[in-house]
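Hey,
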Amino acid sequence: MTAADRGAGDVERAVRLATIFHPQPGRFAHFRAVSGEALPRHFRELLDHASHMTVVMERFYGGPVGVVVVAEHAAGGGPEDREAWYEREILLRSAAGRIVQHGIVRIDLACTPPAVAAEIRAGRTPLGRVLIAAGMLLKVHCVGLLAVDPGPELQGLLGADDAETGAAPQAFGRVAEIAVSGVPAVELLEIVAPGPLPKVLP
């Protein structure tokens, strides 16, 4: 598979996840595949790795981040999905209240213990923190980096005042997957909020 093929696949993955909650994905965002070298340095530090974004965000901002569940589906929408698939759209906020990340996740809760599945559904703690606290130190793989041009729906979620009419600042994100015991269990679209980044740790 060529780099171009991988990039096209990453964009397709991003659009598919965005469509779960945004039936007109063009109003949500436009995605372009990029290499790590093409990202500004701090955005590359936040996105180009195989760790949970929750952990990286907390290191970057020097403290815990909180989760806000924007929307959720109890199970997947297609006949090929098992009933345990759970989907949600979230925002992460820094301790100062700033929105620092948008995310969409699909997770097969059948791959997690019942108590972990219940905590994920409760939506009080970022997914990465829940999995780590449960001892599920799962490797993030199939990471594809993206340049993101926010549309009015994503701008609105991120708190942009000119969501319908203004030019959105450039954002960056990634698609990724997590496997449990070799079984694909989590799909992720993670977008770092655009704007200046207060680098806390070296």
